[in-house]
Amino acid sequence: MSFFSAVEMAPRDPILGLNEQFNADTNPAKVNLGVGVYFDANGKLPLLQCVQAAEKTMSQDPKARGYLPIDGIAAYDAGVKALVFGEGSEPITSGRVATVQAIGGTGGLKLGADFLKKLNPSAKVLISDPSWENHRALFTNAGFTVESYRYFNQAANGGKGGVDFDGMLADLKAAAPGTVAVLHACCHNPTGYDISPAQWDQVVAVVKAKGLVPFLDMAYQGFGYGLKEDGAVIAQFVAAGLTFFVSTSFSKSFSLYGERVGALSVLCESKEEADRVLSQLKIVIRTNYSNPPTHGGAVVAAVLSNPTLRAQWEQELGEMRVRIKAMRQKLVDGLKAAGVQQDMSFITTQIGMFSYSGLSKDQMVRLRNEFGVYGTDTGRMCVAALNEKNIDYVCASIAKVI
Ligand code: PMP
Description:
Blueprint: H1 14-24, E1 31-32, H2 49-60, H3 74-85, H4 90-93, E2 97-103, H5 104-119, E3 124-129, H6 133-141, E4 145-150, E5 152-153, H7 156-159, E6 162-163, H8 165-173, E7 180-184, H9 197-210, E8 213-218, H10 227-239, E9 244-249, E10 261-267, H11 271-288, H12 295-305, H13 307-337, E11 354-356, H14 361-371, E12 373-374, E13 380-382, H15 391-401
Parallel strand pairs: 1-12, 3-4, 3-7, 7-8, 8-9
Antiparallel strand pairs: 2-10, 5-6, 9-10, 11-13
Helix pairs in contact: 2-12, 2-13, 3-12, 5-6, 5-11, 8-9, 9-10, 12-13, 13-15
């Protein structure tokens, strides 16, 4: 008998499993709207010009690869802080933000989860229903009991779907003090439905009144309305005098998925408190992977700290954002032209990379099996993978299963 005989086969990751199925599909017209990745107008994963320029400069003065500090590259952490809290904002000038470089947004979430578990082991974690599927697994693996707050309701907006805001508020209100509330800062994954600034004010008030611990997951800053606009939600939490966690991901905004560039920021009450929090975060890092990798962080730091590259990045990010919005409109128009009777214009009211299409599991399975159009069983489609070449086929396929 082997030492591993009792090891059970774990279920496949739903999204990555879908990817494997897509890769094995021999249909030449196949389209992958499953994974949350931005593809350009030619269906290619972009390598941003600002990234290429930074890498070119770096290669002209090649650096040895020593260990980074445990909390990462100082200029990177400073760049993250400025993006999240706003250049020159009070949390930064007062020194009360602890920011560490992390292995992607996932790494930022995990560092926060491990730190929180030490701080308040009996706290519950609330995630949105539905949420990015890794939220539940990540916080569960960190040792937390994970429950959800109501978020999406297909019956809202006359059956077109939307946020059950009353349900969300009620569930947050009912949570015990110290409960960790994981909130999507912008571009909600998987639904594409965000709440308005006025609704955020109400969430902030409930979080404050109930003594919840906000954990803002910001994986798509810049994909909603712009870097500043998407970051405005952070300022609302700051203005309320709250302390909170923010995870950052540059996977999408820099198209640096494989470099694993992210961060965790913790806003504390004072610099002295932030110093203590930082010292604990460093222990979490040190005992997990010691220190972060060099390349991705160096590229992002170079772009963020160089005005020319920074402007180029903002332009390229803006182009991605605008293209996604154009594809949403094309999808709505294309579905109508393909004969879909029902009003699909809700797709343009959604924001970010994803659309909850309202299609059933059966319809999604048919799309996949009969047409090679891959989305998740929940009806989620990545609109950032649509382009002029595949949109008509996608619309025609959807029209056939609706
Ligand atoms: N949070 C959300 C909501 C996401 O959608 C993602 C990426 N799909 C992440 C976190 C993780 O980002 P990263 O790939 O940088 O780990």
